[in-house]
Amino acid sequence: MARSTMFFTRLGISVVVLAGLLYVPQYFGTTETQLWSQAIYYSLAAIGLNLLTGYNGQVSIGHGAFFGLGAYTTAILMENNGWQFLPTLPVVIVIALAAGAAFGFPALRLKGLYLALITLGIAALFPDLVNRFASKYGTAGTSLIQPPAVVAPSWADSFTDFDDQYRYYMALFIGVVMLVLAANLVRGRFGRALVAVRDHESAASILGIDVARVKVSAFAISSAYAAVAGSVSVLIEGSANAGKVEVFRQSILFLAAIVIGGVATVIGPVVGAFVVVFGQDFAEDLIDDKPELAPATFGILLILLMYVLPDGIIGGARRLLRRLTDRSAAEPAPTPRTT
Amino acid sequence: MTLFLQQLMNGIGNGVIYASVALALVLIYRTTGILNFAQGEMALFATYCTWKLSDEGVGIVAAIAISMVFAFVTGAVVERVLIRPVERASPFVILIVTIGMFLAVNSLAVTIFGDDEKQLPSAFADGGWSVGDVSITYEFVGLVLVLVAECVLLFLLLQRTKLGLGLRAVASNAESARLVGISSGTMLMFGWAIAAALGALGGAMYVPTTPALTAGSMQAVLVYALAGATLGGFDSPVGAVAGGLVVGVGEAMAIQYIEPLHDIELVVPFALIGIVLLFKPTGLFGRNVVERV
């Protein structure tokens, strides 16, 4: 396909998808809208993790902690200091950038498995820290914080009848802005540096790339994405909570989202996040009388998906597309190298 | 001083358990290059089986032995059925498969055995000796002996038998191992089977030291075991044991002596790992991997 046709195809698909997403809360009821909103904030976290793990090759199983950091910052500022939702976002981003960079520096020494395990430690440690330091803001001395719900302002009356519709649009707006930012980031100089460092550190540094700076920046930026996702979760769910199980689950679900969607693709993490959120919901509906079996169904779905599409949904779609357009070049897409 | 010794004993007691789970993780990692996230949950399932058997009136030692055989077979089957098809795929895919197993096994265990708290009897007798003011329980001595036996047997298996030679050959270079006639598939199955059996043993040792057996029993242990394995260097069984012990003792000391760390004693293992890895990124006993540019 020619470059310009490709561009217009993509633009066309984006417009149609966006139009569909704008129509979602008008068509669906509260429960489904909530689910779509969840998919949006999962997407945000997955987009950020993909910058780090997909493009830069640093595996993190701890982004649930940065997600929680964002959620708690927003919730405490709203509940304790009476802030509106949106002004908390710049604060969240600054704090998460700093926290991410702080973890990025020790991460410079670690590769692959070791890094993954240390990040798992962040996820394991975070709930304890929250219990220790945030419980004074929470309900009845617990770490559950429920700030006042965000309500639709009067100017939004023309397109929203309910507050949850307004909240969905707000999440969608933040999601689209952050997606476009990430897409531009990976297509530019920084994105190439990320990939160069992932594929071969020594070669990248010979090309004049400041490897340490790139890796720490990737960590900081991806943490900021996860934290904003956490803030949006407070907007949607109306609460911040950090149980041990939740933080760990979220961390692995974000990772699952990028692998399902397609590692190191722009739109893959979004697709993956939707699969993760709706897949879990589907698994719950599948067996009504045994809710405790839902994770088993979901886990088996994950495994089956990996057998069928080892390079993710986007990777699989690309292979299919290449087969259809060019019969001679039906090679499998190169998978990102990790050490 | 008494308090110190007592805490040291507690620490070693926990550390022994972390070490045996870490040993299982390292074993799988050494033979297959896979980090098995479902290791803890597989051990949980086996521990539930032990509980079920002992609840039905089977003696606890026999129950543990039966569960270990069951886990051995299950481990081999899991490798053959679930892991083999994605063996050559990217590490991400394998990671997601073990995460899928993590979710599935945990929820299956809850579905089959119920989510109420269960009491698993200890394999060791109550009581112990008193040395001065420090009490040494039979359980403590038993745990240490089990770990030592585990280590000796594993060492003999890996270093002194033909089977162990095959396991090590596949781990170091699967391609060459196949060329000299070692069936790498069988070896991998065997590696998973041993690790699963060790997990079953570790679970049955660990759970009686905790208030009750629940669906979340093994998750904290997995974190501590991973910490221990990382500290020791992920490819070294000796490192796994040393790392597990250090983590256990460090945790016990932090609880006792560092008041601000109350409730967040998990900081200790990770602070330790952070410091060690800053100076030696492959862990205390890990080997450096040299890469050609």
Low-confidence runs of at least 5 consecutive residues of chain A: none
- Number of separate strands of chain B: 2
Report the portion of residues of chain B in β strands. under 5%
Mean pLDDT of chain B: 84
Notes on the structure:
The complex is a heterodimer of chains A (339) and B (293). Chain A has helices at residues 3-27, 30-55, 63-81, 85-107, 112-133, 163-187, 189-199, 201-206, 211-237, 244-261, 268-286, 294-308, 312-325. Chain A is mostly helical. Chain A has one domain (31-325): ABC transporter involved in vitamin B12 uptake, BtuC (Orthogonal Bundle), CATH 1.10.3470. Chain A is globular, with a radius of gyration of 20 Å. In chain A, 49% of the residues are buried. The mean pLDDT of chain A is 85. By secondary structure, chain B is mainly α. Chain B has one domain. Chain B is built from eleven helices and two strands; from the N terminus they run ααααββααααααα. Chain B has helices spanning 2-32, 39-55, 60-83, 91-113, 138-160, 162-172, 174-179, 184-206, 217-232, 237-257, 267-279; strands spanning 128-131, 134-137. Chain B has a two-stranded antiparallel ribbon. The longest helix of chain B has 31 residues, at 2-32. The mean pLDDT of chain B is 84. The chains are: A mainly alpha (339), B mainly alpha (293). Chains A and B meet through helix 5, helix 10 and helix 12 of A and helix 4, helix 9 and helix 11 of B.
Quick tags:
heterodimer, A: mainly alpha, ABC transporter involved in vitamin B12 uptake, BtuC, globular, B: 293 residues, mainly alpha
Task: Please specify the SSE layout and strand pairing.
The complex is a heterodimer of chains A (339) and B (293).
Chain A: H1 3-27, H2 30-55, H3 63-81, H4 85-107, H5 112-133, H6 163-187, H7 189-199, H8 201-206, H9 211-237, H10 244-261, H11 268-286, H12 294-308, H13 312-325
Helix pairs in contact in A: 1-6, 2-6, 2-9, 2-10, 2-11, 3-4, 3-5, 3-9, 3-10, 4-9, 5-10, 6-7, 6-9, 7-9, 10-11, 10-13, 11-12
Chain B: H1 2-32, H2 39-55, H3 60-83, H4 91-113, E1 128-131, E2 134-137, H5 138-160, H6 162-172, H7 174-179, H8 184-206, H9 217-232, H10 237-257, H11 267-279
Antiparallel strand pairs in B: 1-2
Helix pairs in contact in B: 1-5, 1-8, 1-9, 1-10, 2-3, 2-4, 2-8, 2-9, 3-8, 5-6, 6-8, 9-10, 9-11
